[in-house]
Amino acid sequence: MKTKAEKSKAKTFWDARVVRTIRGVTVSFYKRYKGSCYTMDFKLHKQRVRSQTETTVMVDAELVAEKRIREMQEGSNGVAAIRSAKAALPLVLREVAEQYREAGPPEREENLRALQLVVELTHGGEFDAVRVDSLHPDDWDVFVWCYQEYERRGWTSRGTPKPDNAWVQIRREIPKHARPDKECITKGNTTILSMAAKARSVLGPDSRDDYLKPLRERFPREAVRAWWETKIRVKKPDGRFNLSRDVYEAMWQRLPVLKQDDPQVWALIRLHWTTGMRPVESQAARVGWLEVDATGAVLIVIKNRLDEGYRMKDSTTLQERPWPLPADLVEMLPRLVSAQGALLGCDTPGQWDKIYRRASEWLRACGVQGTQTLYNLRKLVATVKVANEGVDAARAALGHAAGSNVTLNDYAGTSGAITALSDAALSPEAVMGLRRRPFVLQAAA
User: Fold this and answer.
1) Which of 79, 92, 312, 380 is 20 to 30 A from 170, alpha carbon to alpha carbon?
2) What are the domain boundaries of the chain?
3) CATH 1.10.443.10 fits 245-411, yes or no
4) What pLDDT sits at residue 11?
5) Per residue, what are the HEC states of the chain?
């Protein structure tokens, strides 16, 4: 008599296994119980296949297995062939832009616009069809020449009319060997360097290893390296705080009048004058940003607020920048806050643009020059902070990265009178140290 376990085993594998080699694959066939259909069992492409053949005849079971194996082999080869063919195609900027838009950083559209302008000026064709491996180091000379010509025609000045096809006109006049002016110092050079940095960021190593991962195997690294590493040798103007005493006094004296004439603009300028906020921060500021400390002072706290959709430049930091607000500004805010909670009453980009323009017009009327007039107030705060508390405190207060040189190189100017050096401070002893003489070792007694 067979035991219950033996009967169960016999029922499970009633028929002995039959092994066949089909299209290079070892296949086992067996029946689970008497009269059942054959089951085929094999491995292919690291995949285990175990399924019924729906037939009780061995020859037919082998045909079913052969068909399944052929489909898997041809399907795999087909996918590999498609991938191989795609990998052989040159990578074009349309594919880069699509992937970058899908996975890129928050400023991806701004970076892509910069890259598009650089490529269209230097290649004279449609951005999407340009091959990545066609980018050349000489492209930067062409781009710099074009933007300097754009500035020479006055088209960078606010309020100056420019034709709709301004860049097309300039592209038509590019000389055979473009030679940009590397000695002139203009505000346009600052824009050139900024746009170049944005354009490079799309195709740089960090982007390739993060945002453009699906394209890495097709990316022409060596071809792009020379384009990406080429330095643009133009001189930036000194952008540090440099308001004259007359201009600053005019601003100070006219501020009370502005409070009566245009309270909204007064509040915006007062906010920047006392905190050094970025314009994008004051645009996004809401009532919920205000807090009160233990002394009763009202603070505006600048930090990442992802629940509100607001991100700082460093969107990953947990650091905060709490700025105390002056009493007269706190007193004015209830008259300005919108029903939706916007601190300065600007619920839409259009409303913000109007107040921003009025503030810029007032600053220019006081004698402030430049395209970003509110940034003069941010640089003023940087200057005073550096003078009173040191560069580290100023850097943290303005939200600059730790160890960054931008606070000193691009923001802080001189603040207050320079103390005259006294004769004592300039004496040889003070400057060079006390004179030294040889030490004579005395003989032992």
Assistant:
1) 92
2) 4-88, 93-229, 245-411
3) yes
4) 47
5) CCCHHHHHHHHHCCCCCEEEEECCEEEEEEECCCCCCEEEEEEECCEEEEEECCCCCHHHHHHHHHHHHHHHHHHHHHHHHHHHHHHHCCCEHHHHHHHHHHHCCCCHHHHHHHHHHHHHHHHCCCHHHCEHHHCCCCHHHHHHHHHHHHHHCCCCCCCCCCCCCHHHHHHHCCCCCCCCCCCCECHHHHHHHHHHHHHHHHHCHHHHHCCCHHHHHHCCHHHHHHHHHCCCCCECCCCCCCCCHHHHHHHHHHHHHHHHHCHHHHHHHHHHHHHCCCHHHHHHCEHHHEEECCCCCEEEEECCEHHHCECCCCCCCCCCEEEECCHHHHHHHHHHCCCCCECCCCCCHHHHHHHHHHHHHHHHHCCCCCCCCHHHHHHHHHHHHHHHHCHHHHHHHHCCCCCCCHHHHHHCCCCCCCCCCCHHHHCHHHHHCCCCCCCCCCCCC
